[in-house]
Design goal:
flat; two-stranded antiparallel ribbon; 14 helices
Length: 310
C-alpha cells in the first residue's frame, strides 16, 4: 500500500492592517496645529517683544517665588491636616467621624475667595484670640488678631483650610481602595495600629492617592492666583499691577500663563518620578520572577489503562 506524498505547505502572506482614517486624522490635526502656530507666532498684536522683555523681570520672578512658596507650604500643611481628617473619617468614633465630615462638607462648599476674604477681615470680627475656659471670664493668654494674620499668613491658612478638605477625601479613598484582607493580615501579625498603617496599608494606598493628589497640587498652584484679593504680590497680582500701569494686557497675561505652565510641568515631572520610584519593587519582582515551567502529563497508553482495570 503506497502512502500519498506529502503536499507542500501553503505560503501565507501576512498583510499588515491599514488604518487610512488615522492618516487622515493626523494630517488634519497637523494642519490645524500649523494654522494656530502661524496665527500666534506672526500676529503682531500678541506683542512677543513685550513678552520677552517681562518674562525674566525681577518683579515677575519675585511673584513666581511667592506663588511657589504658597504652593509648597499649603501642600505640606494640607497633607498633614488632611491626613488627620481622613483618619478621623475612617475612625470608629462617631464623634470624630461626624466632626471630620462636617469640616469637609463646609470647606468643600465654600469658594476659596470667600474664605480668603473672611480670614483677611478676621480682625474686624474678633479683636483678640484668647485661650481660656469657655463661658467664663478666665483667660490664660490673649493675642491681637491684627498681629497674627498678615497677608502671607492669611493666604497660607486659607489655602490650607480649603485644600485639606479635598486632600482628606483623596487619602480616605486611597485607604478604602486597599483590600480589607490586608487590614486583617496586618492585625493578625500583632502590629500596633500606627505601624500597620504606615508600613503596610499606606504604601499600597499611595498608588491610588498619588495621581489624584498631584492633580490637586497642580490645581492649588493655579489656585494661588485667588490671593490677589489680599493685595499680595504673587504672580497673578504682580502681572495685574504691571498691565494696569502699561496697558499691555495680552503679553503680560501670556507671561503669567507661561510661568504657570512651567510650574505645572515641573509638578507633573515630579509626579512621574515619584510614581516610578514607588513602582520599583513591582518592576523588580517582575524581572526576578522565574519563568513558570509548564508540566504536561503524558497521555496514558491503552496498555496502562487496561492494566488498571480489575
Amino acid at each position: 500500500m503506497t502512502l500519498p506524498a506529502e503536499t507542500p505547505a501553503a505560503t501565507v502572506n501576512v498583510v499588515p492592517a491599514r488604518y487610512p482614517w488615522r492618516i487622515v486624522g493626523a494630517a488634519v490635526a497637523l494642519f490645524l496645529l500649523a494654522v494656530v502656530a502661524q496665527s500666534v507666532a506672526f500676529n503682531p498684536r500678541w506683542e512677543w517683544g513685550v513678552f520677552a522683555r517681562w518674562f525674566f523681570d525681577p518683579v515677575i520672578l519675585e511673584g513666581v517665588f511667592q506663588t511657589l512658596q504658597l504652593t509648597v507650604l499649603a501642600t505640606l500643611l494640607s497633607i498633614l491636616f488632611g491626613g488627620v481628617l481622613a483618619m478621623a473619617r475612617l475612625s470608629d468614633s462617631w464623634l470624630l467621624s461626624s466632626l471630620a465630615w462636617g469640616y469637609i462638607w463646609l470647606f468643600r462648599s465654600l469658594p476659596l475667595i470667600v474664605v480668603l476674604i473672611i480670614l483677611y477681615n478676621f480682625s474686624y470680627l474678633y479683636d483678640t484670640l484668647s485661650v481660656g475656659i469657655p463661658f467664663t471670664d478666665m483667660t490664660f493668654a490673649s493675642y491681637p488678631t491684627i498681629n497674627v494674620l498678615g497677608q502671607f499668613a492669611t493666604a497660607v491658612v486659607g489655602l490650607t483650610l480649603v485644600q485639606s478638605a479635598y486632600t482628606a477625601e483623596i487619602i480616605r479613598g486611597g485607604f478604602l481602595g486597599v483590600d480589607h484582607g490586608q487590614y486583617e493580615a496586618a492585625a493578625a501579625l500583632g502590629l500596633p495600629a500606627w505601624r500597620r498603617t504606615l508600613r503596610i496599608i499606606l504604601p499600597q494606598a499611595l498608588r491610588t492617592i498619588l495621581p489624584a493628589g498631584f492633580n490637586e497640587v497642580i490645581s492649588l498652584a493655579k489656585g494661588t492666583a485667588m490671593v490677589y484679593v489680599l493685595a499680595m504680590p504673587e504672580l497673578f497680582y504682580t502681572i495685574q499691577m504691571i498691565y494696569n500701569r502699561t496697558q499691555e494686557v495680552i503679553p503680560l497675561l501670556m507671561v503669567g500663563a507661561a510661568w504657570y505652565l512651567v510650574l505645572t510641568s515641573l509638578l507633573s515631572l515630579l509626579q512621574y518620578g515619584v510614581e516610578r520610584w514607588l513602582a520599583r519593587s513591582q518592576r523588580r519582582s517582575a524581572v526576578d520572577r522565574p519563568a513558570r515551567k509548564w508540566a504536561f502529563a503524558a497521555p496514558k497508553t491503552q496498555e496502562t489503562v487496561n492494566a488498571q482495570l480489575p
